[in-house]
Amino acid sequence: MRSSNPVFSRRGFSRDNGYAGFNTAQQPQAGGNPYAQAPTNPYATNPYAQQDTQQGAPQVPARSGVMTIDDVVSRTAITLGTVVAGAVVAWLALPVDAANISKSYGIAIGAALIAFVLAMVQSFKRKPTPALILGYAAFEGVFLGVISSAVTTHVSAGAVPQAVLGTMAVFAGVLIAYKTRLIRVNRRFTGFVMAAAIGFMLLMLVNLLFSAIGGGDGLGFRSGGLGILFGIIGIVLGACFLAMDFKQVEDGITYGAPREESWLAAFGLTMTLVWIYLEALRLISILQGND
């Protein structure tokens, strides 16, 4: 099951065009054909993973070296911590007052571009590189720090704490819904989310184009009633991405992904959380600005 997260969708937890927990062969259904082929472990070649060839079910690895939930949590904490550290440094060192706002915005845009390039390089690499991932996190943090400072200074002093709490609430809510199977990540779910995400991004690009040509807010997707609607849609899409990322992590652990893949999981989860935070911050800014 491929995630819409650009990291997972390009690299994924996959081998030989298969997906973690899924492959191109049909999976057996309960009560179905007893001769149907069992799902193939995409990490069967991993020396640290074992599989019961009779039942097709992964066994507990006999050796260390496979990804665990502790690995994912620790790497995600390190990556998010780097984002927060970069944001704090930028907040303190790059003020957005009248004398420094142009310089601070210029540095923020440059940091965002560098973070994007590092993310794309990592996405196309065959193996995760912690230096690239942490570099992305640091530069992304600088961008977030300046943007957050600007919103706090010019819109609402309480917007950033509210956006952080909102992001944490979305994370907790999606995790609970996923673990209780209120959200089921399957092919239909993935296809719907991917189609919605493509449409959302195309509309945002069109709005940006009209904004660059005509000035203002372009088609109005970033302010007023439409801005509020698209802010909510952006957060919902982020929540869907998060559920798909949870599925990727769960499958990687179940099928014995190498421990180094935990860095990729942390990378993907961080990118999704940054997306949710930015959409939440923008939505709160619109709501506060309308007061």
How would you sum up this structure, described in words?
The termini are far apart. It contains 8 helices and no strands. By secondary structure, it is mostly helical. Mean pLDDT is 80; it is low at 1-12, 14-38, 47-57 and 59-63. The chain has helices at 6-10, 69-93, 101-124, 130-154, 159-179, 187-214, 224-254, 261-289. Helix 4 runs parallel beside helix 8.
Task: Summarize, please.
This protein has 291 residues and is mainly alpha-helical. The chain has helices spanning 6-10, 69-93, 101-124, 130-154, 159-179, 187-214, 224-254, 261-289.
List keywords for this structure.
mainly alpha; globular; 291 residues; disordered N terminus
Give the overall shape, derived from the CA principal axes. Answer: globular
Estimated helix fraction: 55-70%
User: What is the H-and-E element order?
Assistant: HHHHHHHH
Number of helices: 8
Radius of gyration: 21 Å
Task: Determine the mean pLDDT.
Answer: 80
Structural class: mainly alpha
Proportion of β residues? under 5%
Ends apart, CA distance between termini: 43 Å
Q: What is the β-strand count?
A: 0
Low-confidence stretches: 1-12, 14-38, 47-57, 59-63
Biggest sheet details: none
Walk me through the topology:
Elements: H1 6-10, H2 69-93, H3 101-124, H4 130-154, H5 159-179, H6 187-214, H7 224-254, H8 261-289
